Amino acid sequence: MEVTNLSTDVLIVGGGLAGTNAAMGAAEKGASVVVADKGNINRSGDVGGGVDHFLAYLNQDPEWDTQDAFLSYVEKIGRGTGHLSIIESVFCAELPDAIERMARIGNPLTQPDGSFYRTGSMGQPGTYWINFNGKRLKPCLGEAVRKLGCTVLDKVIMVDLLTHQGAVVGGIGFHIRTGNFYVIHAKATIIATGNTNRLYENPRINPFNTWLCPFDTGDGQIMALNAGAALTNMEYMRMTLLPKGFAAPGFNALVGMGGRFLNSLGEYYMEKNHPMGNRAPRYEVVFYTLEELRKGHGPIYIDCRHLNDKDLAHLKTTLGYDKDTLPDYLTQRGEDLGAKPVEITVSEGMQAGPTEVTGSGVKIDKDSASTVPGLYACGDAADHNRCAHGAVTGGYKAGKSAADYALGLKHADSVPPSTSREEINRFMEPLNRTSGYPYRQIEDAIRKVMAEHVGPMRSEQGLKIGLDKLQRIEQYLDEMKADDLHELMRSHETRSILSVGKVMAHTALFRTESRNKPYHHRLDFPDTDNRKWCGLVVVQKKGHEFSCSFEAVP
Amino acid sequence: MLNEKIRREKMPPTFDMEKCSGCGTCDDICPADAIYMKTSDDADVPYLKYPEECWHCGSCRQDCPEGAIEIQFPPDMLSI
User: Fold this and answer.
1) Does residue A500 sit within a domain?
2) The domain spanning residue A493 has which CATH number?
3) What is d(CA A386, CA A340) in angstroms, rounded to the nearest whole number?
């Protein structure tokens, strides 16, 4: 095993949409940058294969298309889940530059004729979704990052952060093909590892058949937590509606273009249940769909038969921008959106932000800084970023802030500790075991427990039993066996997944109310209590224990 | 063993070896780390080492310079 030592101003953990924008932000400030990703930054992360939507207000209508109207919308659908002042700083203030940057790198948000194609859904007061062809977005960003002179470590998984005198000073990772270790000393480190998938039992059999990237496993959030950082909004279990056998994104395209939710009795149930009908906030659509299924009104369908030919053609095209292979899937399954309703279902759960505009993960301030010096966060791994729009804006913001911090540090203060061979060997242990459990066996047990006890119907008793079972599973982590470096990577992901599950159960127990149901639905506290619980559950690690506190959102 | 063979050959993506030039782009960019190269008859060819871990993101098909990659979904995804 070789060990490579690197030194940089800014280390970015994760090179997805947020991480690559962070790299640009830091490099354009003049900082040296290392970005490490388990995959190749040209195709990694949630939007590696493409994306079709970006949320923005464009000041084209005084009623709804302004910053004030947008923030009112955030407050309405995400009350108590984010500070508007932070969202204003990491999203609103960055938005004009983000839109310009996407054009500058070669993947503009506009249509070929230069116009914006806009749709509305998910409780929006107007048409905040910009539809665009983002299939080349990651390759363009990857090239932009390399052109700026950043050191790109493709196929390198980061497994721990380095700390020194209470600050984060870099991280350790290994190359998943060569086994080469990297010890990276950095003045500032940015977590950009996305949300946590592969966490709940998957209704489509294969745990990798997930709505969002199955290789996002909460690694960064857990590394940050272990380094002393606070996380928030970790109790929320996010779900959506998906085509029955294929966990492809596309919900916003289907609803944005006018798709209607239909039950097996032939009723358009959202139109009956919610004043905004099919365009209600996502969590409300999931909630009422679960209700329909419970009442025996399933299966559930999305009906697009009423759309005109032009809108149908746009819908089919944009679905393929969001998930390259979704059109293939629908064709091979014999579906035709214009001819008959398509069966859909509720997705697996994931740990992610409670709305499209408020996030979960590392607690950040207006400068994207965590509660630990030297550590920043962005994208779905940060608590005030979400989705493509949050990754592009908040990523760049985190990059700029981390660069400012790094370039302002006095060198004499920060002599990083050396990392011993023994410490490094610890991360390779599953490879050296001659007997043990494959990661998949451990993960399957985690997913089962999460679905049964930490799912959309929570109670004190159930959550406590869930925690007990997760702790039981934890005892087997040190008996995981990996046959190769690929499995070693997955074994590290399994550790993160289990930790995220435990954090979710703890924070869900702490919040004795329900909020954004079914994302946090306590059957023993079914109401939303804004007098007591309008705010964030903040979790930190004290020794081996988790400690929860409450931070009000005025 | 036969089941294993069917699993590997019938899971997406599939490689058309007539068109494949062995350039390794798919191996390089696959975010699942599912595609590897191997030597077969003195030529470098891609194979799907971890078929269950494919996320069907379509990156390999989009980036293949020879158009040698197809996506054929397996029965469990098409039937349930």
Assistant:
1) yes
2) 1.20.58.100
3) 33
Question: In 3D, which of A515, A32, A51, A97 has the Cα closest to residue A321?
Answer: A51
The SS3 assignment for A105 reads coil
B43 Cβ under 8 Å from any chain A Cβ: no
Contacts B63 to A, Cβ<8 Å: 43, 139
Please tell me if residue A438 touches chain B, with a CB cutoff of 8 Å: no
pLDDT beyond 90 at A1: no
Helix, strand or coil, per DSSP, at residue A537: strand
* Residue A71: pLDDT band with limits 50, 70, 90: very high
Residues A437 and A544 both lie in one domain: yes
Bridging pattern class, strands B35-40 and B43-48: antiparallel
Does any domain span residue A225? no
Q: Please, which residues bridge with residue A158 across strands?
A: A173
| A313: CATH | 3.90.700.10
Number of structural domains found in chain A: 2
Range of the domain at A265: 240-346
Share of chain A above pLDDT 70, in %: 99
Chain A hits for B28, Cβ within 8 Å: 40, 154
Last residue of a domain, one of A307, A324, A346: A346
- Nearest-CB residue to B59 (from A48, A244, A245): A48
Average pLDDT over residues A166-179: 97
Measured CA to CA in angstroms, residue A263 lies from A248, A279, A297 at distances of: 21, 16, 6
CATH topology of domain B2-79: Alpha-Beta Plaits (3.30.70)
Task: Assess if residue A188 is contained within a domain.
Answer: no
Note whether A323 contacts B12, CB cutoff 8 Å: no
Q: Are A434 and A532 contained in the same domain?
A: yes
Angstroms from A44 CA to nearest CA on chain B? 5
pLDDT tens track for A418-434: 888 888 999 999 999 99
Chain A / chain B CB contacts < 8 angstroms: 98
Distance CA A101, CA A88 (A): 19
Cβ partners under 8 Å of residue A63, min gap 6:
A69, A125, A126
Residue where one domain finishes, among candidates A285, A313, A346: A346
Using a CB–CB cutoff of 8 Å, tell me whether A274 touches chain B: no
Instruction: Say if A58 falls within a structural domain.
Output: no
Domain ranges across chain B? 2-79
Nearest Cα residue to A423 out of A162, A156, A189: A162
| Chain centroid to CA A17 | 11
Q: What is the mean pLDDT of chain B?
A: 88
Burial of A164 (C-beta count, 10 Å sphere; 0-12/13-18/19+): middle
The mean pLDDT value for A362-388 works out to 97
